[in-house]
Design a protein that fits this description.
Blueprint (H helix, E strand, L loop, with lengths): L43 H23 L1 H54 L9 H13 L6 E5 L5 E3 L5 H4 L2 H9 L5 E9 L2 E14 L2 E10 L1 H51 L14 H57 L6 H31 L7 E5 H11 L1 H7 L3 E5 L4 E5 H18 L5 E7 L3 E8 L6 H4 L23 H11 L3 E7 L3 E9 L32
Parallel strand pairs: 7-9
Antiparallel strand pairs: 1-2, 1-5, 3-4, 4-5, 6-8, 9-10, 10-12, 11-12
Amino acid sequence: MSPERAAPPPTVAPTTPDPARPPAGRLSAWTAPPDLPQGRDRPRDEGARWSRWAAVAWAPLRWWRSSLTLRVVALAISGSLLVVAAASAFLLNRVTDGIIVRAQESVLADADQAIVSIEQSLAGADQALTTGRMYDIAQAAIQRMEGECYISFWTESGGIISTAGFDVAASLPPPLIERVGEQPTLVHATPTRVWADGRGLPGQAVGTAVRVGANSLAVFFACPLEREAQTLGDVRTALVIFSLALVLGVGLVSFAVARLAMRPIRAARLAAERLAAGELTERMPVRGTDDLARLAVSMNHMAHQLQSRIRDLEQLSRLQHRFVSDVSHELRTPLTTVRLAADVLYEGRGDFKPIAARSAVLLHREVDRFEALLADLLEISRFDAGAAVLSLDEIDLVELVKAEITALGQVAQKAGVAIRLQADGPALCQVDVRRVARLLRNLLSNAIAHGEGRPINVTVAADEQCVAFAVRDHGVGFTLDEEKQLFNRFWRADPSRTRSIGGTGLGLAISQEDVRLHQGWINVWGRPERGAQFRVTLPRRPDEVVTRSPLPLVPSDAAADEPATNQDKTP
């Protein structure tokens, strides 16, 4: 008859320790950051909320990408964590196996001795064993075992006699009981959790059967491995503390090494930034003869060469500016004399023969053009020398555009061109009136000269940060290759085309410099035989940064034919 099965005990597995404003010098004359599609913008508050969430979400990534020291330290700590975790797991596994195996062997040896003692005690006993006698035998058997153990006798009739306080049902695994019933002549052992006096400890359970006369008696031992479990806990704690200390030490060492290695690189970056800011005397200190010292030597040599080249260029620029200024001023006196003579001849051309009269008209026209060219050359020389400054005034851009359209009214009427103005309201801004007026005059003159007599549309718009105006003609237009050269000095798309307005070839170049001086954008769109549109975007106040334009670059009558990715351009 097999012994009664106890309830399965609770088992506990062993645990192991556990982003602006573009620089003026790089402003592209024909490109600018893209506009949001007109009429399809999200509400400003929703866009601002999404921008804040995006900034918060991307902040760790920006920090990671911007700090080489952070990446070095993070990689060193991650690598050391993997190595320490693997080594700790291996070491803990070996230590656990050693302690547990030795403890189990010790329990088995003690159990064998106790079983021999029980067999000897039951050798001459009759079949009816009293409970007192069983307790005495159990007590004698336990005393033979070195550690603390609990014993339980199971009779064939289903009786169970156990050490006081021992929870048999929770401590003896059912598979052990089954194996003892199936193979009573063998000694069976299995890990278990020993429950006694209301607490459970990891331990070892051993079971076998002994003969009592014609009957058999199942004997079970349950030995808690409290000391071994405490030892393993101490080992785990020591491994965790050692691992944390080692990882922290690796992090501190890698941080110190990264800082030490990054110091000359950071010094090189700062020196390069100061050189870019104009501090040409900036040099890096050279210490030692290693690679970092050679980097400092190379940086200093580069700075010296750069300083020499910049000084040469500055000297050349000063000589060029002085030459242009001297020539321009020297030409003013003879030009004034020629102007007076040309005016006299022009006024008296009615008394001349036809050829002489025609010559007087041509002389008067060319003198006018020469004066304009001389003025433009002086202006360009001031830009090249960095002597151009702004004289800001508060104006309404719409009124300024109206004044320039009126000033060119006779020229537009002579060319058969109608100029139409579209503005939703006032566009107040602080700008240099003379320069913006000249800019408007150049763009309008260009549109009249190349508009093929078709209407010209001028649009003015403003938002909280900037103002903008666009000049749209429906004339000859230009190709993409010609677009890249529009703002070059003295460049003409068609050299054979006559100048009915008398341009100098410097108008767009001066316009670009005027816009750059205002820290604004000038952009252009054009297609052959479909006309062109120049868009100028200026900040309302000098402290504002232009990040978008209130006007689209592509005209509304051509937007449907343009790809979505080509609606605007970025520098």
